[in-house]
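Fold it.
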Amino acid sequence: MTVEITTEELQEELEGVRTCQPVSIDYESEVKMNKTGNPYHGEIVKECSIHGLIGFIYRNSVNNQLGREDKELDFVPHQRTWGERQGVLVYHKGKVYVEIKAQGSTTPVYKYKDGTPIDKELIEQYLPKKSAPKTQEALDKKVILRDINLDNVKAMRMLGQEYVIDNTIMTMEVVSVDEAMAEIEQE
């Protein structure tokens, strides 16, 4: 079943998640790029879908992977370097992110902000180099975390529901007839 909701309503749904859940998220975000000599800086976005788990325990995920690789289960994570995690959400500088243990994703589609597609080859030289997590050297298969800004989410599927984000939805406040009449009389 598909439900149209606002970003704020999605945040409320996610605040209620208390257990590990499989999810799929469609999002669009500005591409992080090097600035120097880059004619595309600030002009390119990417669309992508990612699936994985929310509500997981990072330490357990890494130790489970160590166990699958027949290695010692001795992983102790460092403190998060930014943001404050509360449940499945991370709050940082007025923004809200959903933390996901990524298990797969689609190939990103790159485009200008006006929607015109652009080949990745044209911008590849300006993309920062990716590095493996330094705290997981012992793992052959890394546990990948992603923090997706809720403002970038276009749709999310979880708990048998598809949530499509529509921030143009008007929310109506329900008031009693007496309250409505009292407001009219005050005007």
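The mean pLDDT is 89.
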